[in-house]
Specification:
By secondary structure, this protein is an alpha/beta fold. It has two domains: 164 residues, 3-Layer(aba) Sandwich (D-Maltodextrin-Binding Protein, domain 2); 119 residues, Periplasmic binding protein-like II (D-Maltodextrin-Binding Protein, domain 2). 55% of the residues lie in helices and 14% in strands. The protein is built from 13 helices and eleven strands. Strands 7-6-8-5-9-11 form a six-stranded mixed sheet, sandwiched between helices. Strands 2-1-3-10-4 form a five-stranded mixed sheet. Helix 2 links the parallel strand 1 and strand 2. Helix 4 crosses helix 5, helix 7 crosses helix 12 and helix 12 crosses helix 13.
Length: 381
């Protein structure tokens, strides 16, 4: 019995040693070659299904675009908004996309920009949605709205209230991909050579304006004149006009309007904010890699941020300077504001009856503003 126990113990020891030194390594080797390989293969497949694959690096491939800008670079901040795109797109794309902003009338005539982008004759253009409204008048509502929302509310409608989807559908009809790509603050209400106190007084004036502002004033009875920015000052000097509205105090000051008219009225009833966009031929847009598309969209988003801060932050300095030069800043009488609001409601009604796309866009904006007003009121101090 004693010898039997000793034999069992010796057998167990030999078995353990044999398993550890001979069989164990072979089993381990089999586990390593088969199980680990299979595990890595499954892990790799899972990673491919869960994690977006990186795009191949093509640093040696540079895409070069020439974009038609609707604004001279010397007109700040309009020109600055467009020129920023050149630098920032190049940086964020690591040099893979080079954009050159061409001055107005350089790459193509202003009148032919939209058709040229649509047909692919040129890659794209930078302007406002109103710049492309010759084919779709409703696009004016994506640039500015008389007595409309401020920048915050306007951008909310465009980004989350349905406005952006309507805009993109309109663009697709023309073979274009559009991106909101900048914004500036509210405009001034207008420059006048003499004080304006009543509706009757306004009706006697010749006013340089365009767009919805012109439609509103015409309905009231005032005479409107369409002029290029460079001709406004001369028109004041020659008596061709009695009043004019163009843009923000900062931009108006660059035109020297304060030397021709000393009465500057507010608020900017005709344009409480202005949105800009970058339009690109849709076929060209589709050829871009996801990373380059993201680069452009990111830069345009930053251009909006910059536009809000830069334009809002520079207006009071411009107003101070204008005041020191003898300009009187005044508010339009309530009687005039009330009459212009009524005129605008009639313009909207007429445009909606004539154009289904305008009616669709206005309904979207009006419904959004009605809902948003709840938050607007609750947010006030």
């Amino acid at each position: 019995m004693h010898n039997t126990v000793i034999g069992i113990i010796i057998g167990l020891v030999i078995g353990v040693v044999f398993g550890a030194t001979i069989v164990g390594p072979r089993l381990s080797e089999t586990l390593t070659k088969e199980t680990i390989y299979r595990s890595n293969q499954e892990s790799s497949q899972n990673m491919k299904s869960k994690v977006p694959q990186k795009e191949p690096i093509t640093d040696n491939t540079v895409t070069r675009w020439k974009i038609a800008s609707m604004f001279p670079s010397r007109v700040s901040p309009l020109g600055r908004l467009s020129k920023r795109l050149e630098t920032l797109i190049w940086r964020t794309s690591s040099g893979q996309l080079e954009v050159i902003m061409e001055a107005p009338e350089t790459l193509i005539s202003a009148a032919n920009v939209l058709n040229s982008v649509s047909s692919g004759k040129i890659v794209g253009a930078f302007g406002t949605p109103a710049s492309w409204s010759s084919k779709i008048p409703a696009l004016k509502l994506f640039s500015n709205v008389p007595f409309g929302p401020n920048i915050q509310e306007f951008l909310t409608w465009l980004g989350h209230g349905g406005g952006g989807k309507i805009y993109q559908n309109f663009m697709k009809k023309m073979g274009i991909h559009g991106i909101f790509c900048g914004v500036i603050a509210a405009e001034g209400g207008g420059w006048f050579r003499a004080p304006v106190k009543t509706i009757e007084g306004l009706k006697t004036l010749k006013v340089a304006t365009e767009g919805f502002g012109a439609s509103i004033l015409k309905r009231i009875g005032a005479k409107t004149v369409l002029l290029s920015p460079g001709d406004i000052f001369v028109a004041f000097e020659t008596g061709k006009i009695d009043a004019a509205e163009f843009s923000t105090p900062q931009i108006d000051a660059t035109l020297g309007l304060h030397d021709a008219a000393k009465y500057y009225y507010f608020p900017g009833w005709q344009q409480s904010s202005t949105v800009f966009d970058l339009i690109i031929n849709e076929k060209v847009w589709k050829t871009l890699s996801p990373s380059l598309k993201t680069s452009i969209e990111t830069v345009c988003g930053d251009n909006i941020r910059f536009g809000v801060a830069n334009s809002e932050g520079n207006q009071y300095a411009a107003l101070k300077s204008l005041t020191h030069k003898g300009v009187k800043t005044l508010r339009l009488p309530r009687e005039i504001i009330k009459a212009m609001k009524l005129s605008w409601s009639e313009v909207v009604k007429d445009e909606s009856n004539k154009n289904a796309e305008f009616a669709l866009t206005w309904k979207s904006l009006a419904n959004f503003r009605k809902d948003y007003s709840i938050w607007r009121e609750l947010s006030r101090y």
